[in-house]
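Help! Submission page says 'invalid entity' but I think these are all valid:
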Amino acid sequence: KQEVTQIPAALSVPEGENLVLNCSFTDSAIYNLQWFRQDPGKGLTSLLLIQSSQREQTSGRLNASLDKSSGRSTLYIAASQPGDSATYLCAVSSNPGGGNKLTFGTGTQLKVEL
Amino acid sequence: DTGVSQNPRHKITKRGQNVTFRCDPISEHNRLYWYRQTLGQGPEFLTYFQNEAQLDKSGLPSDRFSAERTGGSVSTLTIQRTQQEDSAVYLCASSLEGLLDNEQFFGPGTRLTVL
C-alpha cells in the first residue's frame, strides 16, 4: 500500500526566504506526482504535476523535483511571500486499472511572516 | 470553464439521517473522483468514475456510502444512516483522460457535520 510522508509538518519563515518542502513515498511505481496548495476552508489548487518520466517542473517561483527511484520529491519556493502561507500537499497517483487515484501526504503548513 | 463545483458547501445533520452531496465537474472531463478529508489529514480516495461507469470504489468505508454519475457528468455521493465519524470534508475532483497527464482539479468541498 502506497504511503506518502511530508516533512516538515509545519514551517514558519520570514518573507523573502527560499524554502524547500519534502515529500517521500514508499512505492516507486507511480504514474505522476502533484503538488497542491490548500487555503483554510478551501479546496485544493493544483500547483505542479510531474510525470513519472520527468525530473522537475517549474512554474514561476515554484520548482518541483522528482526522484522516482528513491521515492522523493521536493517543492522549492523562491523568495517567499505572505501570500504563500497555506498548507502544501503532495500526492502520487497509481494507475491500477487506469484510475490514477491520488494518495496524499498529510501536508506541510507554511506560514510566511512579514 | 467554471471549475468543479460542489453543493451544498456545508451540511449539518443528525446522526442516523441520510445525506446527499452533488458534484458538477469541469465540462468534458470524463473522469470524476470523490475524496474525504478529516482535520489535519490529507484527502483519502473514496471512489472513481470514468464516464458513467464506477470503476473503483475500493475507498468507500462501508456499504452506507454510495455514489453515482448518471449521464456521465454530474455525480452524487450519498451517505445513509450517518454517524459522527462521517464528519469530514468531502471533495470532488475531475480530469480528462490523456490531457495534462490526467491532472486532477478539485472543487471547494462539502463540509459535513454529524451531530
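Support: the input was valid. A stray whitespace character was the problem, and the output above is from the cleaned input. Chain B touches chain A through 29 residues (CB under 8 Å).
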